[in-house]
Amino acid sequence: MFGFNKKKNKVEIDSRISGLNRSLSDYKLSNKIEENIKMMKEIFKDNDNLKIRKVINSSNPKFFCYIAFFNGMVDSKIINDSIIKPFTISNLTDKDNNITKISNQVIYINELKESEDLGKMVEGIASGDTLMFLDNEKKVLILNTKGFEHRAISEPESEKILVGPREGFTESLIVNTVMIQRKIRTNQLKIKYMGIGRTTNTHVAVCYIESVVNRDVLNELLTRLEGIDIDAILDNNYIAELIGGKGYSPFKRMRSTERPDAVVGKLLEGRVAVLIDGSPVVVTVPHLFIENFQSPEDYYVNADYASISRIIRIIGYFITICTPSLYIAIEAFHHEMIPTPLFINIAMERQSAPLPAGLEMFVMLFVFELLKETGIRMPGNIGDALSIVGALVIGQAAVEAELVAASMIIVIGITGIAGLLTPKLDSSVLLYRFLILFFTILIGFLGFIIGLSILVINILNQESFGVLQVERIDSIKPQDIKDKFIRRGWKNMINRPGYLTNNEIRKKENG
Prior knowledge:
Helices cover 44% and strands 12% of the residues. By secondary structure, the protein is of the alpha+beta class.
């Protein structure tokens, strides 16, 4: 009908994609500049971002070079002022056609290197570097001309605090490493780069402080990173899932944050940070369970206030998980635990409710999660309004229509508010809230205890790179608990946690 010739189109498609499966090992640099440029055009065939320009020396027209770069990834001013201009106006002779002399005496670039490795050339130009080709030279100059646009430094939306630094990581790896370097002004800070991803070759930086890092954790992390075999790494969650450890767990085994001050604080305790190019989120290992209840702001306010806040967050975590199940256990199975007047009021409310209490709780929790997810996905102002108005309207209408009991709405409200205290544990909250509720509906308070026991056992058995996320009681030292459930003042925190570092001394005891 449309005159589509399958055979003809297949031939055309095959001709257009021919050569795509050729690897870099199929190409070789020549000492003839024209052949090298032809090879570059073939390697980056069908990529119109590749720009190649011929630059001729004004004093010796026979002396010329080619530069190749990706449009939009370089700083045009650097190319014009530091490469093209000096090469053009320099008084060069035929004897000066030497790559080493050009790099040392002509080019005004702070970072460059000679290479005949095609892999490094492709990686360099794809990262924003410029390649310079000279005639009669098999080596190529890789010039640092990176200048692509990136987001300005700003406070992370998901980790806002009232007191403390307001800066957050960006999607630029070099900017993120510099933000860490600015806060740790010592030669003990080590930053190691590696490329991960067969297709993307994403740059990943591993940061640690040599004098305090836990060597076992560092070696285990590097081993796992080197063992990653995947085509692409686009975000920190790729890394977290691939090297987090064996077995499923709703709890995170690597801590993620967008705050440089939080990362520096963890590095000073002996942890290791992993930064991914293109992601503003940095992960640190090992990750302790108590970190889910800690906030960077805890270290910028009074220690007593920070301790109370932490305790409230811990209590809030168990409230948001246990409140629905505890309500069902008492209301449906153990009436004697409720004062008689209160039980009579609840019973009168439930007389008009058409659904059993357990099923009603499941439905209301599902509606709550639905409103919550919708509010997150909608644009900011609309999402906030939708969550608040939706909850009020649906809740009030459901009570007036006698579809649910008023006490059920109160329990759902308490559950939802308490859940906002621990956003880092959303996945475990969702899973265990429904799991414990399921056991409770089946066998009452005994099911509640069984579900809660599964939660506690899972928490106690979690590991992060060989370190237990909850330290055993028999190995706890007084100094190790001064920054866990509570935070003591800096005068009292003499040592770093001994199980996280090889250098426990934080400050002099008489300091």
